[in-house]
Each structure stands twice: as C-alpha cells, then as structure tokens.
Amino acid sequence: MPESRSEYIKLIAEIMEIRKRSDKPMACIHTYGCQQNVADSEKIKGVLYLAGFDFTEDAEEADFILFNTCAIREHAEDRVFGNVGALKNIKRRHPSVTIALCGCMMEQKSVADRIYKSYPFVNIVFGTHSISRFPELYYNQLVNGKRIFDTCDDNTIYEDVPTLRDKEFKGWLPVMYGCDNFCSYCIVPYVRGRERSRSSEAVISEARAMIEAGYKEITLLGQNVNSYGKGLDEDISFSELLRKIDAIDGDYILRFMTSHPKDCTHELIDTIAESKHISKHLHLPFQSGSNKILKAMNRRYTREKYLDIIAYAKSRIPDVSLTSDIIVGFPGETYEDFCETLSLIKEVGFTSLFTFIYSRRPGTPAAKLPDVATEEEKGKWFTELLKTQEEIAASRCRSMVGSTERVLVEEVNEKNGLLSCRTSGNIIVEAQGDDSLIGTFCDVKVTEARNWILRGEFI
Ligand code: SAH
Ligand code: SF4
Ligand code: F3S
Questions:
Q1: Which end of the chain is more exposed for a tag (fewer CB within 10 A), N or C?
Q2: What pLDDT, in 10s, does the model give residues 240-249?
Q3: Which of 279, 295, 315 is the last residue of a domain?
C-alpha cells in the first residue's frame, strides 16, 4: 500500500497517463459557496496538477469532474442537486469519467444517503474533513472501481497539501477552519467542525512565499478570524497575526474575512488604522438590527455594541469602507424588527451588503422556531432593503467622484472592455487601459459614479 500523499499522486499520474482521453488528463472543478470552499478547491487542484492534469470548464471533455458543494441555504443545495443530475448523461457518454462530490453538503448524512441511493453514477463523495485524503480516495476509486463515501471527523490541519491558486496576483490564505459560534440559523458549525487555527509560523511563511511570488493581494480566511489563536500552544491573537504579516516588506494589500462583531476589538481596529498594508475595509456582518432577533440568532452582541464598534472604526480609520451580511425573515421577525435593520443600515452607511432571505436548515435550532411572516412579506421586505441600500451605495459612490484612488487592476470586464480595478475599500472602479496593467497597482481619478460601481481614468 502507498503510504504518503506524494506516492498516491504519483500512482494517479501513472494510471491517468494510460486512461486519459486527450493529450493530458483533464479535470473539471466547480466550486459553490464561500472562499473557504474556493481555497479547498485550490488544494484539490494542487494535487491534480501534480498528477499531470490540465483544467477545463467543459465537463464533457473531462476525465475527472468534481463539485465542491455549499449547504448554507436551501437554494444552494437545490442548484447542486440539479447540476449533479445533469452529469448522468455525461457519465453515460463517457463511462470512464470519475465523478466526485465534496464540500459542506456532503457532511450532512441525509445528503450523502440521497447521493448514494439516487445518484449511482457518482463515484466519490467526501467531506470537508477529508480534503487532505483526496489523493488516497481518488487512487482507490481508480484501482478498484468501487464507490467511495468518506466523511470523517479528523480535525487535524495538514500543512503539506499542495495548492494551485486560481489567480497569480491575488490569493486566499486560510488562517483557521471551522466555527464554534453556533448562530442558531447556521449549518456551518455542523459541516465544518470545531474551530482550529493554523500556527502563526505556517500562516506567516505562506504569506511571505506569496509576497515573494508576486502576489499583490492576500485575503486571510476564517469563519470568525477574530477568534484566531484559540487552542494554539502559542499565545497569539488575530491582531498580532495581522501585525506580523503586515511587517513583511513588499507592495501588497492585506484583507481578511470574516470578522464576528462579538469579538471585534478596538485592538483590531487600531491594527488596521496603524498598518501599512491592511485594506481600509471592514466586513462585519450584523445580520439583524433588532436586539430581539439578534438574541434568537445567538449572535451574542447587541445593536448598540455593534454601533459602538462602527463608531470606533469610523473615528480611527478615515474613509473606512464598511460591508455586512444581513438575513431577512428570521423566524419570529416582524416588520418592526425589520425596520430596525433598515434604520441600522441608514445609520452606518455601508459600501455594500450581502443580503439573504432566511433559509431553514434542518438540524439547526432555528429550524424548530415558529414563523410569523409569510414568504411574500419577506420578499417585500427584501426588496425594500435592496432599494434602501442602493440609494446609500449610490450616494457613497457619488461622494468619491473627483478623488484619486490607488487600485489593484484585476481583469477586463468582457461586457464593456474596461479594466476592472478594486480600491482598498473594496469598491470597483472601471477605467480604459491596457491589459498589461492587470495585476499591478495604479492610481485612478474617479470621474463618475454608477450606482455601486465607479468609473475613472488612470493617472
Ligand atoms: N462566518 C461568517 C458568515 C458565514 S455564512 C459570519 O458569521 O459572519 C455567510 C452568510 O450567510 C452569513 O453571514 C449569513 O448572513 C448568511 N446565512 C447563513 N446561514 C443562513 C441561513 N440559514 N439562511 C440565510 N442566510 C444565511
Ligand atoms: Fe455561521 Fe455564525 Fe459561524 Fe458565521 S459565526 S459561520 S454565521 S455559525
Ligand atoms: Fe457554504 Fe460551507 Fe462556505 S456551507 S458558505 S461553502 S463554509
């Protein structure tokens, strides 16, 4: 039996050299959900790349198809089931293709059972805790052809899994995994397991390697980065980790997500204010402006505490850009509660919001709570929320016209041919320019505001 990950990768390469359908074995990877999943997919791509694979968007020409799934809302799950169903015909046309499903949905027994019974063409199912075992699982499936269902509770952090990043100048850097907060609506703690942090040495050396390789933007990832360090042998907080990375020389911008308001400290805000590289942006999800709903959500802060943090951030970081997540229609929410969410967004003036209609997640405490509002009412509130935020974002964007912003040039917007760039505050500015600017920092004079996107000219 092979013993190490690299031996399994070598064996997969040997098998696929014979079985491949084109010049190189091809993999088609689809990632749903949040950046944690994107970072996990980059690990799987790292393994496949070392095994000689090339990547394709077209499932039809692939030897290996993987969906990395998300369980956060029912709609996300429905989409996955629909798309998996469509793979049946591909498997019929190309019986040698390996079809694999991984990610958060697969950590739910009911989902894994449904795949087992109703989707017999799926060859491999593995959960979020089994990412590091992927080479072994794939190898076993290739040699014995049997279906593999692997979900385990292994919480070990493996530092030696290869990573192939999607972009060459901006990248994700996980600092911790899992979540212990158990917000009453949320499935994440059940599918991602307990909170665990990577050692600061591992994080810092990866950040340093990225900066040396020319990365211009690094985003530190965790479900609640503010509790980074808990449970480690070393005594280190997230703010300290940020300061250590910020001390690395180079021309780069440092971002992080997500912060939880319950332990977002003044120290963190001071760290952003005093840093050289950290973006002047704070993504701080508040979910609801009503204390009654916050309590029922088990968020463990109040509206007042949240507004205190925001006031401190505004006082310490000039022009700080604030963004947030909101849930509309949590069980028991009334129109009066919803109005408190509206008043909070008006008071804060967020740059942008990620807004969601509550989705019942079986197995979470909120799933058992009685509801008072109808889906139709929730839909109306949601539209009202979007409209209110649109006006706030537009007025914020208008106030930036005439200013000069340092931006990272990211890509060409295929629709209008302009270069899409991002400010430190995470606002998109589009400007006419040469593709060679992609991946570099430039100064842009903002000339026009279009709802939540700016237009400008390179200086
Ligand atoms: N750890 C992050 C958020 C991760 S999930 C945090 O606590 O801020 C991203 C967002 O999805 C959440 O902030 C929440 O707004 C939304 N979300 C989570 N569960 C949901 C559910 N059951 N229904 C609707 N939205 C949900
Ligand atoms: Fe879910 Fe709350 Fe954890 Fe965020 S902090 S992942 S919302 S349980
Ligand atoms: Fe979805 Fe899992 Fe992220 S449930 S939002 S992919 S942690």
A1: N
A2: 999 999 999 9
A3: 279
